[in-house]
């Protein structure tokens, strides 16, 4: 081994040739390496998000975070369980050992959450299980700007753009954001409710029943079969009157 430096010095052309071949091989290998702005990495981490409106940080910690942490610690290959608590919500991240299948672990976490659901408070608004992945990064964003257009017109244009983008096989998912959902505010006259002996629950149930899609079934007339179609959901504001 001690003679290698001596051979390299006495034969500079051979040394340069070997060095050049190594550089060419490295350059060629670099061109064959797959490249991506956001490489897909299946991280062995699963998240649980809980939304509990109106609850304090202490209530969320005692009634939600601690039971979930205890249930997640029972799983195998768990390295760390981290919890972030804010007002009205908390997030629990379960980190597993590298080398495990994240898709398999997310099923185990979901099963644990399903078994724990009855023990959690009734007022929970959202309880979701997430999988960490670098492929969920938004690569391209479009913004529709029209100062004189209505929200409805802009949303229709956004839907058309969404359909065109989804035609590409290279696109994984397309989402429309920042569109305010339409709401109908019902003004109640307490004196008239009292006069007609109608409660607020009856008004709510009436609106829900009329704004529902119920299968009407079929009607047989001789050899013919007719489908019965119900009125379905409200399509315009006048139908709510």
Explain what the structure shows:
The protein has helices spanning 3-10, 12-32, 57-72, 102-116, 151-166, 190-196, 200-210; strands at 45-51, 78-86, 89-96, 126-131, 218-221, 224-227. It has three domains: 45-136, Multidrug efflux transporter AcrB pore domain (Alpha-Beta Plaits); 138-182; 190-240, no CATH class. A hairpin with a 2-residue loop joins strand 2 (78-86) and strand 3. The N and C termini lie far apart (95 Å). Helix 3 (57-72) crosses helix 4 (102-116). With 241 residues, it is an alpha+beta fold. The model has no long low-confidence stretch (mean pLDDT 81).
Mean pLDDT: 81
* DSSP helix fraction: 25-40%
Radius of gyration: 31 Å
Q: What's the total number of strands?
A: 6
The low-confidence runs, each spanning 5 or more residues with pLDDT under 50, are none
Which band does the percent of strand residues land in? 15-25%
Strand order of the largest sheet: 2-3-1-4
Tally of DSSP helical segments: 7
């Amino acid at each position: 081994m001690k003679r290698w430096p001596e051979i390299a010095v006495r034969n500079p052309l051979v040394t340069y040739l070997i060095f050049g071949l190594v550089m060419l091989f490295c350059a060629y290998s670099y061109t064959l390496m797959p490249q991506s702005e956001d490489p897909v990495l299946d991280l062995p981490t699963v998240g649980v998000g809980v939304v509990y409106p109106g609850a304090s940080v202490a209530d969320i910690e005692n009634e939600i975070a601690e039971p979930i942490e205890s249930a997640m610690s029972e799983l195998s290959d768990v390295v760390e369980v981290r919890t972030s608590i804010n007002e009205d919500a908390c997030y629990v991240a379960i980190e597993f050992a590298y080398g495990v299948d994240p898709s398999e672990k997310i099923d185990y976490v979901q099963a644990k959450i399903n078994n724990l659901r009855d023990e959690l408070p009734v007022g929970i608004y959202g309880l979701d299980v997430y999988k960490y992945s670098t492929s969920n990064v938004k690569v391209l964003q479009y913004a529709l700007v029209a100062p004189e257009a209505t929200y409805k017109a802009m949303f229709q244009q956004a839907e058309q753009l969404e359909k065109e983008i989804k035609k590409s096989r290279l696109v994984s998912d397309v989402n429309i954001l920042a569109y305010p959902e339409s709401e109908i505010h019902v003004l109640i006259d307490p004196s008239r409710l009292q006069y007609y002996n109608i409660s607020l629950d009856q008004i709510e149930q009436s609106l829900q029943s009329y704004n529902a899609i119920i299968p009407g079934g079929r009607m047989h007339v001789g050899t013919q079969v007719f489908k019965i179609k119900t009125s379905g959901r409200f399509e315009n504001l006048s139908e709510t009157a």
